[in-house]
Design brief:
about 550 residues; two-stranded antiparallel ribbon; two-stranded antiparallel sheet; mainly alpha
């Protein structure tokens, strides 16, 4: 055990900033949700109306929790539990890969394995580290819920469900780290597993059975295949069904046992999914840094683009259904218009969906820019720079591919919206134009965040990963969910996603497009100017 404690302490020291950001984000999200519910839905009638809307319109349940009644605390859990669990899952996946495959890529794992600590003790330290981090997150979420006056059993379930979701994906991240040949691939596997699991839960809720009063929903079997479904079916502050957490025990134990078994079955630095061997000769596209970055990023870019296309198809296919619901439930009109413009309800639905497409595009761009830091840490940037590639050209290559990623994702969303509208009603093409304008506006918003992440990569490279993802995370929460949380308009408009240009009825509304373009251009100048004097910083 004397070898275990130094390794655990080293992990806490390395992760103190990242964990603080993740955990503080989850706590602030919980506080914002409670404040927003009390401000925007103060009466039981208001909450019942929104729950009826969610139950009647399955699209809402794709991005929300499981309706469990009109009690204020239960309603707050419906609004926020999925997102706290999502933060815990992403935090844990990145943590698992960082201290396993990431250490192997950096050469640290080999040095530690050469000591009496061997192969198992570092993995035990990583598991303990992840469990403790999720324990802190769950405890603070519970304390916040208790502090605002919510019942003890439900508050405990809120924290426990969030923590167990994180620990389950900690195990999955550890397995991915054993399978993948690089930390980048392992992180990609983990993130896609989280997103697909979240989507499976949302679809399971959407396909479930509503109660007669439209205040509760019973999940379909699909939701039970997802850790998010297990967490949401605890129904905090309603039935407090702690028994639904039982699948977590089996999933966590199986994942951890599998991770240890795979670790022992492979050589250090090896992988069960090895990288494909390269060609004997490089193509002409790899003669410059842009081609190299494109080669690295094209797989993930394809995934983000497919996601954008799916969101685009959903935006127009479901806009008419949302409009029909809004005609009978006035509160839906107020809700969507608080999230979008003052145009028709169908236009408001498209704006909400394209805000989500903008989030995906920003993620695609930021992930591409952050590859510069990952390549730097892995030692891949040095031979590129040694080949006569200057710092501006080096940074610019990642930035140019990031711009392509943003534009491709939103172009796919616009094309998907056109396909969805033509398949629904080919005679009505006005929503296609609205979707195209929304895509352009969200491109401006996404590029603003990409430039912000680039500045961090250039000026403070060691903060690149946490700061880059924090930018898009904060902008998403404020821009997409700020109105539901009761944020002031001025606070919501700080988010580029909420300030993006759009159509307001039949008129074009520039909104915050002017300041977004100004910030983007100024940020680009700052990034390129700072890049001229930037030295490589390979240490983490």
């Amino acid at each position: 055990m004397s070898r275990f404690w130094p390794l655990l302490s080293a992990r806490w020291r390395r992760d103190v900033l990242q964990l603080t950001i993740w955990i503080a984000g989850a706590v602030l999200l919980a506080v914002s949700a409670v404040v927003g519910v009390r401000g925007a839905f103060p009466s039981e009638t208001d909450r019942a109306t929104l729950l009826a809307t969610a139950v009647a319109n399955p699209v809402v349940l794709l991005f929300r929790g499981l309706p469990s009644g009109t009690d204020e605390a239960a309603f707050a859990a419906f609004v926020i539990l999925p997102f706290i669990a999502l933060l815990a899952a992403l935090m844990s996946t990145f943590l698992a890969v960082r201290h396993t495959r990431g250490d192997e890529d950096a050469g640290r794992a080999e040095l530690i394995a050469a000591t009496p600590a061997g192969r198992d003790i570092p993995l035990v330290a990583t598991v303990t580290h992840g469990i403790l981090a999720n324990g802190v997150l769950g405890t603070l979420v519970t304390l916040v819920c208790l502090a605002v006056g919510f019942a003890g059993p439900g508050s405990g379930l809120m924290g426990l469900a969030s923590a167990l979701t994180g620990i389950a994906f900690l195990g999955l991240g550890l397995v991915a780290a054993q399978l993948a040949a690089s930390a980048r691939t392992a992180n990609a596997i983990g993130v896609w597993a989280v997103l697909l699991s979240y989507l499976a839960c949302g679809l399971g809720n959407a396909l479930g059975t509503p109660s007669a009063d439209l205040r509760r929903m019973t999940s379909a079997p699909l939701a039970w295949l997802s850790p998010f479904g297990w967490a949401e079916n605890t129904r905090p502050y309603d039935s407090d069904a702690a028994g639904t957490l039982a699948p977590f025990a089996a999933a966590i134990v199986i994942a951890l046992l599998l991770a240890f078994a795979l670790s022992r079955a492979r050589d250090l630095g090896d992988a069960f999914l090895p990288s494909r061997p390269g060609h004997a000769t490089a193509s002409a596209a790899l003669s410059g840094p842009i081609g190299l970055v494109w080669r690295e990023a094209r797989g993930s870019l394809l995934g983000w683009t497919v996601g954008g296309a799916i969101v685009g198809v959903m935006s127009t296919r479901l806009a008419s259904a949302i409009s029909d619901v809004g005609d009978s439930i006035p509160s839906v009109q107020a809700l969507l218009r608080s999230l979008a413009s003052q145009g028709s309800l169908a236009q408001g639905a498209i704006e909400v969906f394209f805000t989500l497409a903008g989030v995906l595009a920003a993620c695609a761009g930021i992930q591409t820019v952050l590859r510069a830091r990952q390549d730097e840490v892995a030692g891949l940037a040095e031979p590129v720079r040694a080949a006569g590639v200057g710092p501006i050209r080096w940074v610019g290559a990642y930035l140019m591919v990031a711009v392509v990623a943003v534009l491709a994702c939103l172009a796919a969303a616009a094309a998907g919206a056109a396909v969805g509208q033509l398949a629904t009603d080919a005679s009505q093409t006005d929503l296609i134009l609205h979707a195209a304008v929304a895509a352009v506006g969200q491109a401006v918003a996404a590029l603003t965040l990409v430039i912000g992440a680039t500045i961090v990569v250039v000026i403070r490279p060691r903060l690149s990963l946490p700061a880059g993802w924090a930018l898009v995370g904060i902008a998403t929460v404020v821009g997409l969910f700020g109105p539901l949380f009761g944020f002031a308009d001025t606070a919501v408009d700080v988010s580029p996603f909420a300030s993006a240009p759009r159509l307001d009825g039949e008129a074009f509304d520039l909104r915050g497009g002017g300041w977004l373009l100004t910030v983007t251009v100024a940020g680009l100048a700052i990034a390129l100017t700072a890049a001229r004097r930037r030295e490589l910083a390979p240490e983490r």
